[in-house]
Amino acid sequence: MIPHLFQRFIIQTSLAAIFCVLPCCTAAHPEEITTTEVNHNSTPQHKIQLKQRPTYITPQVEEQLRIRTFLQTNRHPAPKLKRTFFITPNESNLAFSIGDTRDGYLINGQSLPAPSTILRQLPVQYERGITYGTHNLIAILTDTARAMQKKYPHTIMYLGNMGAREGGDIPYSVSHNSGRDADIAFYYTDEKGKFAHPQNLYKITRGLKAFTKQGTLTFDLEKNTTLIETLLTHPKIHLQFIFLAKYIRTAVHKELIRRGASEDLLKRFEETVQAQAAHNDHFHIRIYCSNEDICAGCIDKSIIHEWQEDPLPKRDKCIQNHLKTLSSKKSDADHKAAALQRLALMGAAVEYGSKILKFLQDENPHVRAAAAIAAQSMDANAAKALSAQLQKETDQSVRLAIIQSLGSIESAETRQTFNEELHALSAGQRSDMPPEALQAITSYIIHHPNAEHMRPLHEALQSASSSGKTTGPLLRAFNVVTNRNFCHDGGLNAACMEKISTWIEKQGNKSRQQWLIAGFQASGFKVTNLEQKDIPVLLDAIDGSYPLSINAQLILKKIGHLEQDSLNWAVQDSRWHYTRYFKRRAKKYKINLNDRDEKGNKQ
């Protein structure tokens, strides 16, 4: 009885309070209820008061929303691989690290698990989409993160850059190409001595401090030393390197000695942890090729530590197994195709080139395509065999493989063959040429522009424009060869074709060097002889029109003896890459780049 009376009392009291409040609310604007002319369906214009809404979304929350959006995108089915890689039926779930960490790539890369309670990638790097690596790389990262949290509850291991889904060059690093590299953020403590969640990679001073927007963070010597120890003692996966700034390396080494680390651990530390000044804001780790990777073409350059099994005997055994597959009558097309490609990826294509090129005549088109792809790892002599097969090949998938392989071999034979294909296209003999083949031809010309391509491209443009076919790839290649920006304002039309023909009449017999200089100067870039004193102007030209940007990058690559393929990067990434390279070597090239930062932004 008493509880019911108490509940009734509470309800009555609450209702009374509500009714007491309502008059107060309406009484706040008495004129709105006494004026008979008030439109009760809307507030009069003179009564509207605009107030600035408070910001409920903090930068941290906004960052989390961006990460969540990227995570949802990342869950979509992966797009088809751009690279052709032949696998056998039992290898569909394997990831392969191909080549070395500087010039290689990744097949079926495994993505870092979604942000978890033990392991996460920093927001900036996560949004870049470079979350991929081999199975072994993901394994050593997750195993280490789990061990660290077990020892230090409520801590998280944060990562920086890893690799792209298919590996290859990324503008943020000269390595990280083949899925065996990862950047691990330092462990920090905040100003209260508690574990700090970093938002980025922070540079550590010689006093082991980082001054950030989060406040002053301290390099957590205990946790970071434990991290190194855990990485170095993984029972199955061995590190080849950990790159770290010298003064940080010294601090960690002293801490290991203070702890009484074993001689074996100290030896591993000495040989594995390499001092590199640029790594003052993260640990850069690199693992060795797995056995499966070695048989697919993975290369361990530099040091092979004594505790790591020598890969050369494994490589030799794999090569012999691939050769047996090719010679066996029991081998099916899938295994033959995989063996052909992997011989090339392992660097054995030149040595066994005659055996590989014989399979260009195989009755199975799948095998012929694999032989064509393997041929791109040979010397320029392979271009002759590919060109000869192209003339009689009828299968479109094999023709495409041959053209794409020729596109990777810079030679006079390739140039002549592609010019013949362009002539055939303009004569209407290649009406069935797939867009990928034309893309491969024009991509080769863009990467290796030569004056000899100018007239065949012009003929192909005329034929394509008159028949209403796509002219974009042809026009881009023509513009790069001539270093002009024809038809930039409305596509390829009769007026533009007239401009091109007029230009060829007047300038067609000049050297390509003259075309380059004139093209830059016509757009306001005052170059002289396209040598090192023109580096500052060429860096500016990266932001110019497409042909100017491509040619500026090609010239900068030549001057700096650089190999990275930046032509498909975003313009700002290319500018950042080349500016940083030449700014750090300004004395060597006798140039002054003090008017810009390393990203190329004028100061």
Which labels suit this protein?
14 strands; globular; Muramoyl-pentapeptide Carboxypeptidase, domain 2; 4 domains; four-stranded antiparallel β-sheet; four-stranded mixed β-sheet; alpha+beta; Leucine-rich Repeat Variant; 603 residues
Q: What is the element layout, followed by pairings?
A:
Elements lengths: L1 H26 L3 H4 L24 H16 L21 E3 L6 E3 L2 E2 L7 E3 L1 H5 L4 E2 L1 H17 L5 E3 L21 E5 L2 E2 L5 E2 L12 E4 L2 E5 L1 H12 L6 E6 L1 H14 L3 H10 E3 L6 E6 L3 H6 L14 H17 L5 H13 L7 H6 L6 H11 L6 H11 L3 H11 L5 H15 L8 H13 L6 H14 L4 H11 L11 H14 L4 H11 L12 H7 L4 H15 L10 H13 L2 H4 L14
Helix pairs in contact: 5-6, 6-7, 10-11, 11-13, 13-15, 14-15, 15-17, 16-18, 17-19, 18-19, 19-23, 22-23, 23-24
Summarize it:
The strands form five sheets. The chain has a four-stranded mixed beta sheet with strand order 7-14-12-13. It is 49% helix and 8% strand.
Task: Give a structural overview.
The chain is an alpha+beta fold. The chain has four domains: 60-73 and 82-296, Muramoyl-pentapeptide Carboxypeptidase, domain 2 (2-Layer Sandwich); 310-409, Leucine-rich Repeat Variant (Alpha Horseshoe); 414-509, no CATH class; 519-603, no CATH class. It has helices spanning 2-27, 31-34, 59-74, 123-127, 135-151, 221-232, 246-259, 263-272, 291-296, 311-327, 333-345, 353-358, 365-375, 382-392, 396-406, 412-426, 435-447, 454-467, 472-482, 494-507, 512-522, 535-541, 546-560, 571-583, 586-589, and strands at residues 96-98, 105-107, 110-111, 119-121, 132-133, 157-159, 181-185, 188-189, 195-196, 209-212, 215-219, 239-244, 273-275, 282-287. The strands form five sheets. It has a four-stranded mixed β-sheet with strand order 7-14-12-13. The N and C termini lie far apart (81 Å). Mean pLDDT is 87; it is low at 14-43 and 73-77.
